From TrEMBL:
Residues 13-62 form the HTH cro/C1-type domain. Transmembrane segments: none annotated. It comes from Amycolatopsis taiwanensis. This is Transcriptional regulator. One of its GO terms (molecular function) is DNA binding.
Length: 72
């Protein structure tokens, strides 16, 4: 997948645990793990809004595009 989620970086910068973050955002710790591990297929704007509000960041601080490796 070419979209990378840097949630773990943002949590580490704020020294925030997954449990604290999940409770503040209103999502389960399992869903936080899905986001952190890059397994999410979609993120609702309401969830993204809550994440940005809690972390006091912009969506671009959480999401970045990386080109896929060319296949031979």
């Amino acid at each position: 997948m070419a979209i990378v989620v840097d949630l773990d970086v943002q949590l580490a910068k704020r020294k925030m645990s997954v449990g604290e973050f999940a409770e503040a955002v209103g999502i389960s710790a399992a869903n936080v793990a899905v986001l952190k591990n890059g397994r999410a297929k979609a993120v609702r704007f309401t969830t993204l809004d809550a994440i940005c509000r809690v972390l006091e960041c912009q969506p671009g601080d959480l999401l970045r595009w990386v080109a896929d490796e060319p296949t031979a």
